[in-house]
Amino acid sequence: MTMLDQGVFNANPYHTFHHARFEAMNMLERALAEGSTEALEALIHTYIALDPPPLDLLRHIADDMTGRLLMLREQMLERPAYEHDCAIIETIHSLLTDWLRGLSTRAVQRAAFQRAAILPLGGLPDEHFH
User: Fold this and answer.
1) By the 8 A CB rule, do 2 and 39 touch?
2) What is the mean pLDDT of residues 84-113?
3) Which pLDDT tens digit goes with each residue over 50-86?
4) How far apart are CA 101 and CA 112, in angstroms?
5) Is pLDDT above 70 for 8?
6) Alpha carbon distance 62, 52 (integer Å)
7) C-beta contacts of 37-45 below 8 A and 24+ residues apart
8) Less packed terminus of the chain by CB within 10 Å, N or C?
9) Which alpha helices (DSSP H) does the chain contain, by range?
10) Contact 57, 20 (CB under 8 A)
11) If you compute the radius of gyration of the chain from its CA atoms, what whole number of angstroms results?
């Protein structure tokens, strides 16, 4: 059971940020060992569905995956078996970065809409009501 399933992430986001990040990396290790990305993808989708989604956490997870991918690529010359692990990480990383781009765009659009919805002091001029 993940921390999200237990409801822990929302209870104390400052304390659980690092634990959630650690949990995602543990799930990545599991995905590499099992050759299946389903559990990690489900975790990422769960974070994405939160309102608001924890963009900082998702960015850190993506950065962690990038670091792991770079390390594996360097070691592939010595151990070609890492090619499969790289493919798994690339799949999950691609999913995550695509979602992050979309979520970031949505956040910017929402902020722009909120700024535009703020009325100037004194309200709208009378000419808008004719």
Assistant:
1) no
2) 86
3) 888 888 999 999 999 999 999 998 888 888 888 989 9
4) 16
5) no
6) 18
7) 37/88, 37/91, 37/92, 40/92, 41/92, 41/95, 43/2, 43/4, 44/92, 44/95, 44/96, 44/99
8) C
9) 3-6, 8-11, 13-34, 38-49, 55-75, 82-116
10) yes
11) 20
